């Protein structure tokens, strides 16, 4: 918590403000209390945004979403005033750190604890989706770990199920690394959109990092759409389920009810120290790729995304593709190396003539052809030995013939 600043209000509605809890793109969140002593988290829209109708609409959606959700998975709405000069609303104050802060301060969560928190969050998402709401910005900083269980907060960009993203061309609302591919593309959001963010959040709890690494927004959004997640460090008990949540195709992701059931089982098994069984068929997406993809980092990552973006704008046949074992932008056919003779020198072919595989080239299965053994050192040694034996036998026979002829001459 932070002290109130000079420009901060001291009283909003029936609540007296005591501390700052944080600030975001839409407004500032304060810790307040009413006359009965009930503590609330009160969000007030920024002055410069209060006159913006789009921001007012988003704020109204947040209040509407909070009112529609039932159950203990979210902070209960206490009061709101959408017609005020600076619109605000207050929810029940949830004591406890965010999942982001807990991991940052104490390190990654054990498999049992991560699965337990995940099971509770999945049950919470069931209630959210039953209310016809998609959160659209689920991430570690929007999950508070209260003594009574995790709570989902900040429905500022939540929207009704089936609605498209409210963005301009080339932009996306949300947090890179936790956005689903369909959000980046501007397609309709569904409960499966939150499942993708849930998988990325669970991976963060187990690794203290996004499954798509770090980088600029452009790099992160590119990876989300075109590359497979890196789940190195995620416990074996959780990795298949997390990977299923991060499937590019929303239809391949598990439902929140399935997540709650499976994570509950994993939490109980991990708490008893029982080894994880083989992953279920439904826990692994059909388009499963490697759990340890290779990707550039640092400045190379920036250049990588820029090159891919430029190729995508070059025209058909060069643009990015959403498939590929390692998230490559296009399927590429490797050009085989041509060899000539035992040394494997470059063989030149006329334009338009199909290249013939050399005798020392490998087949597509990784094994050598029947003639390829000649170009190996062992093959050359065997051939040299055979040649020496042939010469030795030939010389011996010639010598025997000559000796026999000389003996015949002496007799006569």
UniProtKB/TrEMBL annotation:
<protein>
    <submittedName>
        <fullName>Serine/threonine protein kinase</fullName>
    </submittedName>
</protein>
<feature type="transmembrane region" description="Helical">
    <location>
        <begin position="389"/>
        <end position="408"/>
    </location>
</feature>
<keyword id="KW-0472">Membrane</keyword>
<keyword id="KW-0812">Transmembrane</keyword>
<keyword id="KW-0808">Transferase</keyword>
<dbReference type="Pfam" id="PF00069">
    <property type="entry name" value="Pkinase"/>
</dbReference>
<feature type="region of interest" description="Disordered">
    <location>
        <begin position="270"/>
        <end position="380"/>
    </location>
</feature>
<keyword id="KW-0418">Kinase</keyword>
<keyword id="KW-0723">Serine/threonine-protein kinase</keyword>
<dbReference type="InterPro" id="IPR017441">
    <property type="entry name" value="Protein_kinase_ATP_BS"/>
</dbReference>
<dbReference type="InterPro" id="IPR000719">
    <property type="entry name" value="Prot_kinase_dom"/>
</dbReference>
<dbReference type="GO" id="GO:0004674">
    <property type="term" value="F:protein serine/threonine kinase activity"/>
</dbReference>
<keyword id="KW-1133">Transmembrane helix</keyword>
<keyword id="KW-0067">ATP-binding</keyword>
<keyword id="KW-0547">Nucleotide-binding</keyword>
<dbReference type="InterPro" id="IPR008271">
    <property type="entry name" value="Ser/Thr_kinase_AS"/>
</dbReference>
<feature type="compositionally biased region" description="Basic and acidic residues">
    <location>
        <begin position="292"/>
        <end position="305"/>
    </location>
</feature>
<feature type="domain" description="Protein kinase">
    <location>
        <begin position="15"/>
        <end position="266"/>
    </location>
</feature>
<dbReference type="InterPro" id="IPR011009">
    <property type="entry name" value="Kinase-like_dom_sf"/>
</dbReference>
<feature type="binding site">
    <location>
        <position position="43"/>
    </location>
    <ligand>
        <name>ATP</name>
    </ligand>
</feature>
<feature type="compositionally biased region" description="Low complexity">
    <location>
        <begin position="345"/>
        <end position="378"/>
    </location>
</feature>
<dbReference type="GO" id="GO:0005524">
    <property type="term" value="F:ATP binding"/>
</dbReference>
């Amino acid at each position: 918590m932070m002290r109130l600043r000079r420009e901060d209000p001291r009283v909003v509605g029936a609540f007296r403000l005591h501390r700052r809890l944080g600030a975001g793109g839409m407004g500032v969140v304060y810790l307040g209390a009413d006359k009965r002593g009930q503590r609330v988290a009160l969000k007030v829209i920024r002055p410069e945004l209060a006159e913006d109708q789009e921001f007012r609409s988003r704020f109204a959606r947040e209040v509407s979403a909070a009112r529609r959700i039932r159950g203990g998975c979210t902070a209960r709405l206490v009061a709101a005033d959408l017609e005020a000069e600076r619109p605000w609303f207050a929810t029940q104050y949830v004591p406890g750190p965010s999942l982001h802060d807990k991991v940052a301060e104490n390190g990654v969560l054990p498999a049992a604890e991560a699965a337990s928190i995940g099971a509770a969050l999945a049950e919470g998402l069931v209630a959210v989706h039953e209310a016809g709401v998609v959160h659209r910005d689920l991430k570690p900083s929007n999950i508070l770990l209260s003594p009574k269980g995790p709570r989902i907060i900040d429905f500022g960009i939540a929207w009704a199920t089936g609605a498209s993203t409210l963005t301009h061309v080339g932009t996306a609302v949300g947090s890179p690394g936790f956005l689903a591919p369909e959000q980046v593309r501007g397609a309709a959001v569904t409960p499966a959109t939150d499942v993708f963010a849930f998988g990325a959040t669970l991976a963060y709890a187990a690794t203290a990092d996004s499954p798509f690494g770090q980088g600029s927004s452009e790099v992160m959004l590119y990876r989300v759409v075109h590359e497979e997640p890196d789940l190195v460090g995620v416990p074996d008990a959780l990795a298949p389920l997390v990977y299923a949540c991060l499937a590019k195709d929303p239809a391949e992701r598990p439902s929140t009810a399935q997540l709650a059931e499976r994570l509950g089982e994993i939490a109980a098994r991990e708490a008893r120290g029982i080894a994880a069984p083989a992953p279920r068929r439904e826990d692994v997406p059909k388009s499963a790729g490697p759990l340890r993809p290779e990707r550039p980092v640092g400045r190379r990552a920036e250049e990588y995304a820029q090159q891919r973006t430029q190729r995508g704008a070059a025209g058909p046949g060069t643009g990015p593709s959403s498939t590929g074992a390692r998230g490559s932008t296009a399927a590429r056919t490797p050009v085989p190396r041509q060899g000539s003779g035992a040394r494997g020198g470059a063989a030149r072919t006329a334009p338009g003539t199909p290249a013939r595989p050399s005798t020392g080239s490998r087949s597509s299965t990784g094994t050598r052809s029947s003639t390829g053994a000649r170009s190996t050192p062992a093959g050359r040694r065997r051939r040299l030995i055979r040649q020496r034996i042939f010469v030795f036998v030939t010389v011996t026979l010639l010598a025997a013939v000559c000796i026999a002829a000389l003996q015949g001459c002496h007799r006569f």
